[in-house]
Amino acid sequence: MNRILQGRALTLAAGAALGLLALAPIAEAQAQSSTPSMREQRAKRMAELGKDKDQAKQAEQKPALYPNATRVSPDAKASGKTVKQLQALQELYEKSDWAGVIAKAEQVAAMPIAGPYEKSFAYSMAGNAAADLDDQARAADYFAKAVAADGLDNDSHYNTMYNLAVIQFGNENYAGALATIDRFLAETKSDKPDRLAFRAGILASLGRNDEAGAIYKDLVAKNPDDKRLLMNAVAAFQQADKFDQANLLLEDAYKRGMLSEARELRALYIGYMNAQRWVDAQKVIDDGLAKGILQSGPELARDYQVLAQNAYVDDKIALAIELYTKAAPMAADGEAYLNLAKVLEYNGKKADAKAAAQKALDKGVKKPDEARNILSR
What letter does residue 30 receive in the DSSP assignment? Predict the structure, then answer.
């Protein structure tokens, strides 16, 4: 019986250790609090084109988004000869005529009198239009041209550069995204957590999980209540096979009451299992069930069976029976009941063993003869 139970438990343990968490890096620049909304950007363009003096005044008074930037911000204004063309481009954008925006932008950028500002303005508008058309490859090309033309003020220039990195990441051009975000960070000197976390996410996508984990760990130390940073740090360390570091982060978060979702608790107790901290794993599971964070089901049944198996191997028979008893009703099949029956029989509890064997047959098992043999004895 020992050999049968041990072989099954090893299979369960290996399965439990895989695929715990996935990284969730920033996916969209517009979602970040430090990136102006499209409405704000549109107002800024209107001000630059001389259509709203009040907006122009407000733009001048607003603090710079990148006060430490090494780039000298140019005088981002259109020449008198191109204002009408740019205003027409802006109007197409406000009408959500994305195809019209792209066509007009290319026309403006090709004008012999178009300077750096006109080209950057036109290409950035075309990039946004292409993104709205879900033509991400074209959006990346336009944003890259807008940055290369180097004609926008610092805020707009670096927002466009960041948008380019986001689009490159979404297109799975991770090397390109890393080069762009590295340039962005080097030139802006930005230390905002979302920007650094985005870089860590890119590194993880390139398989450079050690570097990603180090960045996330530093960010968590500076922002201990940011759960998204925490879980990304844990995922990076897990993917780098540094489970001890992942466990330390999760354990600290658990003690501070931060783990409020089933996947978060499972990451912790599976980490404990992999570290052979069986008592700690059971405490987390039992506590999660009591609080309603964890729900009964086949996945939790498999995890309880791993604990039960290891209790049996450690000759903790009463605990093994307790854990198999918890696992069996929520399992998808009767295998947990069959293991429970075997342990009960081994412990001399024949009546209980037969009852468990019958339940195993009722739910279905791969080897029904094993259950029938217990019933016949």
Answer: G
